[in-house]
Request: fold
Amino acid sequence: QQPVQSPQAVILREGEDAVINCSSSKALYSVHWYRQKHGEAPVFLMILLKGGEQKGHDKISASFNEKKQQSSLYLTASQLSYSGTYFCGTYGSSNTGKLIFGQGTTLQVKP
Amino acid sequence: DGGITQSPKYLFRKEGQNVTLSCEQNLNHDAMYWYRQDPGQGLRLIYYSQIVNDFQKGDIAEGYSVSREKKESFPLTVTSAQKNPTAFYLCASRLRGLDPNTEAFFGQGTRLTVV
Reply:
């Protein structure tokens, strides 16, 4: 039932790009993306709504293909501060308030 | 400052004892959630609540119980029936639980160790 994220882990050099994928087996209303630094609480990045546009801020953007029930998070020209674990959260089309998360993708950016 | 407060940060209990984790928010959010975080398994939903005096089981509710007597509070009890309770527990809230366009705010978590 949890959405499936891939890859599980990524190691990058500063300035390189990365893509993190999130796939659900159920129809979705929205997809959320969060980043968690070690020992800290997850922090919200963005929400993508069914029928909405691709979103982004700074060099982090995301897309949502509602027909395929998939979302991708794009990190371009990665910075050291991008290191952490990224989680996608999925909100089902049944609209019950249930928000569930994937297993996470650990991103490490090296100098 | 508005936010979500989880206490305590670290908790140790003996096997067979029930333990209650506290979660309080002063954001005036309607919905509250409990997640369990284990290495490699991400965040798994235990219970969630959209309004006072109502809550729903998540994907791994067995061995846990909750109450929502006040809008700002959503305590989680880990009972002796939970077979592997040692984990990091995160509480979250959302302004409007039934709005898919509302983000979650997380507390700092409680690390529970059962010995």
